[in-house]
Every structure is written in structure tokens, then in C-alpha cells.
Amino acid sequence: VFPQVTAGGRANYYVSYRREPFAQIKLPKYSLPKDMHIISTDENQVFAAVQEWNQNDTYNLYISDTRGVYFTLALENVKSSRGLEGNIIIDLYEVCRIKGIFLANRKIDDQIKTFITYNKGRDWRLLQAPDTDLKGDPVVCQLPFCSLHLHLQLSENPYTSGSISSKETAPGLLVATGNVGSELSYTDVGVFISSDGGNSWRQIFEEEYNVWFLDWGGTLVAMKHTSVPIRHMWVSFDEGRSWSKYSFTSTPLFVDGSLVDPGIETQIMTVFGHFSLRSEWQLVKVDYKSIFSRRCNKDDYQTWHLHNQGEPCVMGERKIYKKRKPGAQCSLGRDYSHTVVTEPCVCGQGDFECDYGYERHSNNQCVPAFWFSPSSLSKDCSVGQSYLNSTGYRRIVSNNCTDGLRQKYMAKMEKCPGKAPRGLHILTTDGKLVTEQGHNATFVILMEEGDLQRTNIQLDFGDGIAVSYANFSPVEDGIRHVYKSAGIFQVTAYAENSLGSDTAVLFLHVVCPVEHVHLSVPFVAIKNKDVNITAVVWPSQAGTLTYFWWFGNNTKPLITLENSISYVFAVEGMNTVTVQVSAGNTLIQDTKEIAVHEYFQSQLLSFSPNLDYHNPDIPEWRQDIGKVIKRALAQVTGIPDEQILVAVFPGLPTSAELFILPHKNTTERRKSSEADLEQVVEVLFNALNQNLVQFELKPGVEVIVYVTQLTLAPLVDSSTGHSSSAMLMLLSVVFVGLAVFLIYKFKR
């Protein structure tokens, strides 16, 4: 068995039996497993422990059909624990030799209780406590408030008996450590025994003991499980009703374990341990042949009828076993045979469990679960073929009942019905809803009900191209299509046959990988006023893009599908703006800085023509030239460079905009600060008009900075609502309009 995790986080499990191809395990629809363990694969059936998404220390027990594919719930919230090596241990025990009998510890309302089943998990019940204790006093214990609870872990040490044991050679005999009460206890424990397959129990020790089966299971030997040295063992010939005490060593021994073969001919038991904590290992061989007076004869045996609380039919059979009479002190010997008489029973309701997709209700009837449609059993069936139609019941695996209700409950072979298309789905082979322009997009068409091979299919790719298939058969590699343009396309599948039709829609994003993004922002913005910011992406036909806008130190972006955004800066100073553009699996970004102030002034600049000859028109060059001009202005005028900002525009002829900013420490004295700014503007303007501002581009190339002959832009602040660039553009339009009007009048 191996798991496969889907995109949604759900684990699908696949299983292979007898080297057959792997098949997906079918658990109930809303079972969302996060862990799974195979407990048993005996008798053509799988027992699986599944930990659901909402479980931590428990597992649900599931049981399969004979194919090991369809699983139904047998018991919820079975206790689990960790072994010495970190392995998962499920508290489930199968009784040896008798099929169908299991014991399990289940968690109910934070209490662990022991349950038993005689029909492989169809029905579970609590264990009846013993009638009397070791002293013969009555035990007051009323079901379901009080019952017997057992520890079900097998020993990880092969030389101890473990907390529960049974043997193939001793049918119906179980020995286990446990307690009587409302729940399982780990402190107040004793040892209990059942001679009738778990129907009734007797207490044999008040403390914890190791109990082994001797002489093919006809004799029991017990040693106290303790950390102090011992030298006695107890032997019982009557299934624990009475015990004889024997000494196996003259010196007390710290017992580490015992090696016992219940069928060994030499009838020898090997006990090993230490005389002291520092001594070497000691091996003590116990030959118990002498305690048997003779070999058993036919008068020493009796028959035992397996039953379930008096019901003689267990797993569809009546079974009779041969056992030694309690108290007969004779050895069974190697030729001992457990003769079993088996007789089939008539099938009753207890011989059937609910089939996959069905749940047992209070009236003991199997009803379809809310998520299951019985008609789905024929969804893979074509017209003209046959399929097994479930009645909601299936006979318990390994149940050998005959006649009776078998004919009523067994699945019926029926002809496959014709069906209208239903549950049509269109998917991409990679499960993604994004593809690149010019690449193959591969589609797969699935249908929950209806015969695809007798259905006409039309697939419209949403870009003006469609394909049609008559008597459609699924294409192994899918249906391929190449989109020549970017965008969002509605892909539509239409299925139709003589009984009806169905439609499925998929929205596919076709993108062209973006290569570059340029963030267009103003160089200076006014505090608490809207600023328009634009991201220019190349190539422009990139399809649907997602824009992530980061402002200043914000840890969360603003997300838009538009390439522009309006933003209000509330903090003065240099503010950082970053845009990230996502297209499919591609993510690119650009970052700019904006100077934010309450007010400023600006002036357009021009240069001597020789600068155009050396202008490569790239961003880095423009930034460097802006720094050079800023430095030249500061040197000529003595104005601090933090009050000057120069932005060189792209294109030819080379031009720039000069921004005159208020001093950092004067924003609170607004009126006087505006007057100071006017003085700074006057100084800069005089220097520029006198051609005092110039810089050396390279040896022999002197560039002069001029004031563009337009009226200086007025003071811009938060009360005007106009940017300096917008005012300058408005003035330009006015001048051009006047010039055109004068020329027109002159011509007339």
C-alpha cells in the first residue's frame, strides 16, 4: 500500500494484491486520512486502521470487500500508542483459531473501554465482568456502566507472554491482564481468563503475571511479573480454576523471560535471568514431564460448542471442538488433534454487513449514505454489458452461511442502463488553469454518469475554434490546443446523447511571459493628496496580470488587476514605491522613490545643444546627469542640496524639471517658510538666467543649463489641488493657442 497526496491535501491510498495492478482504495467519501496501517490481509480481506484528519491518539478500523478495494467502517476511535521503537500500535487483538472474534479498545468520552465482536466487526459489545472475585465474593458490575477491560498489546519481548495471549492449539482459551470498572486502568490490574471464547471471564490473579501455554495448550504455567527475584511458578490443569505451586530454583532469580514451545515433545521450559543485578545470565531448564501421571485417553476429553452469548451460529457455522477435561492431569502428546465438527447455518441478518456507501440505521437496515448514489455503481458500465447491483448488503467475508436471506441480500446481476450525460468535467492534464501563449494546452473530459463512447462531445476552446467528436472515446494523451493570443478564455465542453445533455465550463488564463516593468511616478508629490502611479509592462499584450503595490514600510501590499493606482502619502520625506507584476509563473518588479512635501516650486530646464549629441536616453544616464546638475546648482548658489531635486526627462531634446523644496526644519512655520522658499527660487532663477550654472560632461564638452522660457510655476501646496507639471502644460497650451490665433489674424 502506498499513499498519494492530492493538491487539496487529501491522501489517496493505492493497494496491490498478488502482483496485480495497483487500485485506489475506496474509503467513505468524506474520510480524509492522514495515516493508514494495514493490520491484516488474511482470508481475502484487508483490515486497515485509518487516522482521520480530526484524530490524534485514535484510529478508525475499516474492513474491505474480497477485492480489498471498497472499505466500510467497522469501529471508530480505536486506541493507539507508540511502541519502544516509535512504531504505531493499534489496540486490536484477533483471537487465535476462531475466525471472526476480535477484541478492541475504543475511546468513548475520554474513557477507554474494551469491546468484542464475533462477526468481524459487524456488531460490538462490552465484556461482561466476572460474577465473583478471587475470594468468591459477588462482583457488582452492571453493563454498560461497568464492564471488564483488557490490555491488548502483544509483547514486544518474545520471551514474555504479553498482556493478552491465545493459542491455535487451545481454541476458546484467552488469558489477559485487565481490570473491572468504568474504563481501562493501568494501576489496579489483575489477570483474567476465558474458557469459552470471551463470553464469560474469571479472575485468576490479583497482580500482573506472565502466563504461558504448555503441552499443546492443555496446561497453563504462570510466573509473577515483578522486579524482585522469585523461585516459584504456578501450574494449572483446569484452565486456571486451581493452581499448584512449584519451585524451579533453590536460589531466587531475577527472571528476564522464558522460552516455551507449547508443542515441544521434550516438554521442557527454559527460564533465564540473573541471581543478582551484577551476575551473569543463568539458564534454568524446567522439565515438567514428571507432573503428568500418564498420557490422555478418550475418556479425558470433552466437546466444546463455540457460541456468542448462547447463539450457536458464529460466522455462519456451528463449530464443535475437542478439549481436555478440566482437571485431567494427563499429557496430550504430539499426536493430539483438535477435532472440529463444522455445520453451516441458515443465513440470517447478522451474517450480512452494510456494503460500501451504505450505513446501518437504528432499525438495523442498511441505507445509502447521504453522499452515495446507488446508481453510481453502473457509471462505468456500457450499454449491452452487465454489472452487479448491490442491495446495500454484503455477506461478511469468511462467513459460511447458506440459503435463508442469502438470495435476498446478495448483489444482483443487471443489464447496464442507458444514461444521459451527467457530471461532465473538463480539466487540464497538469491541473493548472494557466498556460502560456504559443504552448500546448491539453484538456481531459470526464463524465460521472453516461456512456462516453455513445455520446457526442463538442469542445469549444473560447478563441473561435471548436472540435466535435461522435461516439467519443477518451483520448489517452488528452485534447491539445495552442492559443495564439493572451487573455482569459471560456472553454466549454458539451456532451449529448439520445437521453439528454450536460455542459461543463473552464476559464483558462493564457499569459505571455512579461519581460520588463517600468514604474511611472511623479518625482515630487504633495502630502495628503492623491498621486497617480502607473506600471508600464512589456510586452503590452501579456494577458491578465496581477499587480502588487508596496508603499513605504507597509508589510501588506495592495493588489489590483489594473496597471495604475491612486495613493495618498501621509508622511513627508522620501517614500518608496514598489510594484510586482505576476503573470503565470513569472514575477517581476520595479522600485521608485517619491519626495513628499506640503508645498514646493518647480521650473523647467533646458540645455545647450551639445548635450543632445551625448544623450544615450537610458535611465541610468538621466539619473547621473540629474545629480551633476543638482551639484552644480548647489555650488553656484550655496543652497543646500536637500532643497534641490532635478529630474531629467526621457527623449530629445534633453530637458529636465527643477524642484525647489522647503527646508526640512521649517515645515511648521508655514508662512515664513514660503517666503524663504521664494528667496531660494529667486537666487536659483538669477543664477540660471545669467548662465552661471554649467557642468563639464567630458573634457572639452561644457554644458550650460538654462531656464526654459515659460513663466515660473507658482507655489504648489495642499490647498491648490494642481501639480506643477499640470500648470506648466496648461500654460503651454495657452501660449500655443494665442500664437495660432495671431497667425490666423495676420493672414486675413
Your description of this structure?
By secondary structure, the protein is mainly beta. Among the domains are: 211-292, no CATH class; 298-344, Complement Module, domain 1, CATH 2.10.70; 352-416, Wheat Germ Agglutinin (Isolectin 2), domain 1 (2-Layer Sandwich), CATH 3.30.60; 422-510, Immunoglobulins (Immunoglobulin-like), CATH 2.60.40; 516-597, Immunoglobulins (Immunoglobulin-like, Sandwich), CATH 2.60.40.10; 602-707, no CATH class. The protein has five helices and 57 strands. Strands 52, 53, 54, 55, 56 and 57 form a six-stranded antiparallel beta sheet that branches. The protein has a five-stranded antiparallel beta sheet with strand order 4-5-6-7-8, with no helix packed on it. Strands 13, 14, 15, 16 and 17 form a five-stranded antiparallel beta sheet that branches. Strand 47 and strand 48 form a beta hairpin. The longest helix is centred in the C-terminal third of the chain and has 24 residues, at 724-747. Residues 4-10 and 710-731 have low confidence and may be disordered. The chain crosses the membrane at residues 726-744. It comes from Antrostomus carolinensis. Belongs to the VPS10-related sortilin family. SORCS subfamily. Its main location: membrane. Residues 460-504 form the PKD domain.
